[in-house]
Amino acid sequence: MGKDNILQVKDLHVTFSTYGGTVKAVRGVHLHLKKRETLAIVGESGCGKSVTSNAIMRLIPNPPGKITKGQILFKGTDLTKVSEKKMRSIRGVDISMIFQDPMTALNPTLTIGTQLTEGLRQHHKNISRQNAKEKALEMMEIVEIPNAMERFKQYPHQFSGGMRQRIVIAMALICEPELLIADEPTTALDVTIQAQILELFERIQEKTGISIILITHDLGVVAKIADRIAVMYAGKIVETGTKRDIFYHPQHPYTKGLLHSVPRLDLEGETLEPIEGTPPDLFSPPKGCPFTARCPYAMEVCNKVFPVHTKLTKSHEVNCWLQDERAKQTLAEVAK
Amino acid sequence: MLRYILKRLLIMVITLWIIVTLTFVLMVTIPGSPFNSEQSSNETVQANLERHYNLDKPYHIQYLLYIKSILTFDFGPSISQPNQGVNDLLGRGFPISFELGIVTIIVAVISGIILGILAALRHNRIMDYLAMGVAVLGISIPNFILATLLIQKLAVDREWFPVATWQGPEYMVLPIIALATGPMAIIARLTRSTMLDVLTQDYIKMARAKGLSPWKIIFKHALRNALMPVITIMGTLLAGILTGTFVIEKIFAIPGMGKYFVESINHRDYPVIMGTTVFYSAFLIIMLFLVDIAYGILDPRIKLHGKDGD
Ligand SMILES: Nc1ncnc2c1ncn2[C@@H]1O[C@H](COP(=O)(O)OP(=O)(O)O)[C@@H](O)[C@H]1O
Ligand SMILES: [Mg+2]
C-alpha cells in the first residue's frame, strides 16, 4: 500500500435504482494496484466485477446507477470527485478499458482506421492525419495484425473475433495509458485465441510497464498472467493475495469452491465440482457473510455479522470468520 | 456493383411494364368514356372523336399504341383539353409537385431525426414525453384533416398564411406542414427507438471509454447506426408523401401533377392517366432504387451484389 500504488479503491459502493428496488451491486470494495502489476478480479457472474470496473472509468449509467460511497484514487486524484470533462481527458489517455465481446465493441459502420485514430485525434488536437495513421499502424504491429496497411482501411466485419480483440486492444493502448482494465477480454474467444491474447497482454506489459486489471470469472485464465488475485463475491472482495496465496493456500471457502470448479493440470484425477447454490439477491443482501447459505463450514456468527478483515500474511488477506479468532467474541457481543 | 445496378434496372423496367399493363386494364374496364358527357351527344361526332384518339381500335392495338407512346415518351394531346399535350401538362405540373415533395421530405427527415434524438437522449423525461406526444398526434391525424385545420386556424382566422395556390415561399408553409407531419412523426418514433437501442451497444461504451466527446459519440457513432432503419422505411414514406400530394394539392389548389392526375381520372382522359401514372411510377421506382444504394453506402456490411449468395 501507500504511495507507489497507481490505483487505490477504498470502500466503493455502487447502487442501481430499479423499479424492483435498489440493487446494491458493489458494497464496499477495496483494491490496490501497483505499476507494472496485473491484478485479476475473479468471481461468478453477477458479483459486481463489471460494475466495479465501470465505476473506476466512471462509466456507470446514471440513472439508474450511482457511486454512493467510497474513493477511487488514481495517482492520488479521487476520480469520484472530478468533473465529467476532466474524466473524459483521463479516459483513453490514462486509463483504458476493453470489453468482453470484440464482435460488438467495434462500430460496424466505421473503418478500423477511423476507430483506431479517433482517440488520438480527440486527445491530441493538433496531431496530423498522417501522424495519427502512422501511430495506428505501429499499434497494429504491436498487437500483431498482419497487413496493417491494408487492414487499416477495412471494416470490423472483415475481421475474425481474435483479430477484432487485437484491434480493440490496440485502440485502448494507442494513447499509452498507464492502466488497462480488461473486462473478460477472452471470454468470448476460443481457447487457442484466448491463450494468444493473454500472451499479448504479457508482452505489452513487459514493453510498456502498463498496469492491468484483468476481470474474469475463470480462474484458469488468471493462472498464467496475474500477479495478484482478488476474489469477489456478492459485491465484496472476500479474499486477496498473490497468485501463489490464492492457488496454493486458499482460505475462503468460496475461493476453494472456485478452485475446485476449474480444471487443473497439477491435480489430475480430481473431479470438478461446481459450487452448490446461487449467489444472494443483491436487492437485500444478507447482513452477515453473503456466502453463508452455500458454505459447508458456516457457523452461527457468519449469518449475523460480516467477517472482519484478516491479514494472514503481508500479501494475503481474507474476510472469513474461520480465519479470525475474534469470531467467538463477536458472536457473544451480538448475542447481548 | 455494376452488375447489381444492371439487375435492378431490368427489374425496374419489368415493374413499370406491369404497372402500365394494369393501368391499361383498369382504364378499359371502368365504365364511362371521355365523350359521353352531354356536350358531344351527337353519335357521328363521338365516332369521329373515338377514331381520332384510336379508341375505336381493338384493345390489343390500343395497348400497343400506349406502349409505343411510353417508349417514345410522347403521350399525345389530352382529350379533355385538346390544345394541351400530355407532356406539356407533366412539364408544368411536375416541378411544382417535385418542389412540394422534396421540401416535405427534407422537413420531415430533419425534424423527425432531431425530435427522435432529443427524445432518446432525454429518455423518460419531459422532453421525451413531449416529443412522443407530438409524434402520436402526427401519426394519428390524417393529412387532409390537418390541412383543413391549418387553413382554418392560420389562414382564415389569423391570416398569417395565404389560404391556397402556389405563388411563393409563404404559400408553401401550410401544405408542407400538413404533408410533412405524418412522416416526421414516424421518423421521430423510429429514430428514438433505434437510438435508444444503439446507445446501449458496446461500441458506444467503447467510444465513451476512449474519452470521445458526447457530440462525437452521438453523431459519429450512434446516429449513423440509428439511421439505418430510417433509411429502410424511406421508400414507404416516399410513396406515402407522393400519394399525399394528390390530396394536399387538391385542398390547397396547387397546380401540380396531382391535380391533373385526379382530374384525368374523373374525365377518363386516357392519355393523361397513362402519362401521369407512368411518370409517378417511374419516379417512385427510381427513388426506391436510390434509397437502396444509399443503404449500401452507409452500411459497409451490405454488399450490393448482382447474384444472391455471392
Ligand atoms: N444498469 C443496471 N441496472 C440494474 N442493475 C444492474 C445494472 N448493471 C448491473 N446491475 C447489477 O449489478 C450486479 C453486478 O453486475 P456485474 O458487475 O455486471 O456482474 P459481473 O461480475 O458478472 O460483471 C448484478 O446483480 C446486476 O444485476
Ligand atoms: Mg461482467
List keywords for this structure.
heterodimer; A: alpha/beta; Rossmann fold; 8-stranded mixed β-sheet; 4-stranded antiparallel β-sheet; 12 strands; 23% strand; B: mainly alpha; MetI-like fold; 11 helices; 75% helix; 0% strand; binds adenosine-5'-diphosphate; binds magnesium ion; transmembrane (chain B); membrane (chain B); BPD_transp_1_N (chain B)
Task: Report what the structure shows.
- The complex is a heterodimer of chains A (336) and B (310).
- By secondary structure, chain A is α/β, with parallel strands linked by helices.
- Chain A has a single domain (5-94, 177-335), classed as Rossmann fold, CATH 3.40.50.300.
- Chain A has helices spanning 49-56, 84-90, 112-123, 129-142, 148-151, 161-173, 191-208, 219-225, 243-248, 253-260, 300-304, 327-335; strands at residues 5-18, 21-34, 38-42, 65-74, 77-78, 95-98, 179-183, 211-216, 228-233, 236-242, 310-311, 317-318.
- In chain A, strands 6-7-8-3-9-10-12-11 form an 8-stranded mixed β-sheet, sandwiched between helices.
- In chain A, β9 (228-233) and β10 (236-242) form a beta hairpin.
- The relative contact order of chain A is 0.13.
- Helix content of chain B is 75%, strand content 0%.
- Chain B is flat and about 85 Å long.
- Chain B starts with a helix and ends in a 12-residue tail after the last helix.
- The longest helix of chain B has 38 residues, at 214-251.
- With 310 residues, chain B is mainly alpha-helical.
- Chain B has a domain at 94-255: MetI-like fold, CATH 1.10.3720.10.
- The chains are: A alpha/beta (336), B mainly alpha (310).
- The interface between A and B is medium-sized, with 30 and 21 residues.
- The structure holds adenosine-5'-diphosphate (ADP) and magnesium ion.
- Adenosine-5'-diphosphate binds at residues 16, 18, 23, 25, 43, 45-51, 61, 64-65, 282 of chain A.
- Chain A: Residues 7-259 form the ABC transporter domain.
- Chain A: InterPro entries: AAA+_ATPase, ABC_Ni/Peptide_Import, ABC_transporter-like_ATP-bd, ABC_transporter-like_CS, Oligopep_ABC_C, P-loop_NTPase.
- Chain A: Keywords: ATP-binding, Cell membrane, Membrane, Nucleotide-binding, Transport.
- Chain A: Its main location: membrane.
